[in-house]
Amino acid sequence: MRLFLSLLSKQFCSINCNRTLFQSIKNSSHYPSSLNKNLCLSINRYQSSESILSQLDYIPTSHKLNCDIYILTKDGGLHVHQGPFDRAHICQQYGLEPRDLQKIDTDLLINVPIIDVRQNRFICFSFRRIRGLVESNRSIYFVPSIDKITTEPYGVKDTVHWERIAQAYDRTVRFIHQLYNERFINHTLIGNDMIPFEFRITEINLEAVARGLKLKENELLTEFKNVRERAYARITIGSLRELALLKEKVDKYKRNADLAHKAITDVLAHDEDMVGMYLTDTRQREMSDHIQVELLLEACTKQMAEVRRAITDLSDSIHTLENATGFMLDAVRNELLSFEIKINIITMGLGLGAFIAGIYGMNLTNGIEQNPHAFYSIAGASFVIISGVIAVAIKRLLRYRKIRLHRSNKNYIF
């Protein structure tokens, strides 16, 4: 159908171009220049329509899910299934509805975290660098495929960017698998067997989210220390650019931490969601019978709050550095203005001396031409006047530069 519509659009565009060209030839048979102009316009319209249709041809099909599926079983095994997969097949195999799949298959760059609970069926996790379903006996993760590069999402710059995102998803799932085996398979503690599988994976998933944000916060903290040292040593355009980029990154990850924290608190605010998270024990429960889930989510909320606090402190430090940099630039600007005013004062004094010299340089009789001491007297007087004017102006400038928050005499300005 899409191929048929594309061919139909091209045929329609060619008919319109031919009709426009025919009308232009008919109406301008006596004007060759107008004919050439209309011909060029028709060609440009045809080329623009071809470019638009070529872009439409590259829009990827939406019935394929370009990802690999990682399945973590209850016994600690991790099974990888290579994609892409048909969306209808995914929904049928894992008992999903199309709206559930849309929550998992979100934008890789702009992701709004969410924990969606389907009553006694599964728990949907859609966070940055982790997308998956938690069932009573297995956990299913959807990881972007490294080998299959598509044009989705449109914000991905190139192949290297896509591979970096896919590797981040893969590392997150590998970390979850390793942590699950260490905590519940290899070193089983007393009482761990009593914890249902969905609660184990839920706790580890949220720990992985907090760990990813914490690692990024440490990376940004190291970058901030380097930028601060360079800024305090010498302020350059490069250091200001680095500070602006760092502030943008920190604001971005601060929003990610806030949204992740909000996703957990939203589940804590709804009793029916916490009751629905019991996938192994499917007996009928009261709305207040969810103490185990509530304690689990409160512990994860505390971890996320600590990450938020660290990122907020880093954001405040960047804001302080930005203000300090602005103060230093203002101080340098004031020094330049002061130097410029001093140059203007000296120029004013020399201009006064030039004025005196110009008066006595006139070819007019003034009565002191024959005085042998006239030159030295006028030169000395001019020097004294110039020095006095410059000294008084500099003294007033220094008084201007003194910042006094309180003056005993309000009428005394200087």
Number of DSSP E strands:
8
The top-level CATH class of the domain at 61-185 is Mainly Beta
What's the tally of helices? 10
Query: Could you tell me how far the N terminus lies from the C terminus, measured between alpha carbons in angstroms?
Result: 84 Å
Oligomerization category of the chains in this entry? single chain
- Average predicted local confidence, pLDDT: 76
Radius of gyration: 38 Å
Low-confidence spans: 1-5, 10-43, 45-61, 410-414
Strand order of the largest sheet: 3-2-8-7-6-5
SSE map:
Layout (H helix, E strand, L loop, with lengths): L1 H26 L4 H26 L6 E2 L1 E7 L4 E4 L3 E2 H8 L3 H7 L9 E5 L3 E6 L2 E5 L3 E7 L14 H28 L10 H37 L3 H32 L2 H6 L14 H70 L13 H28 L13
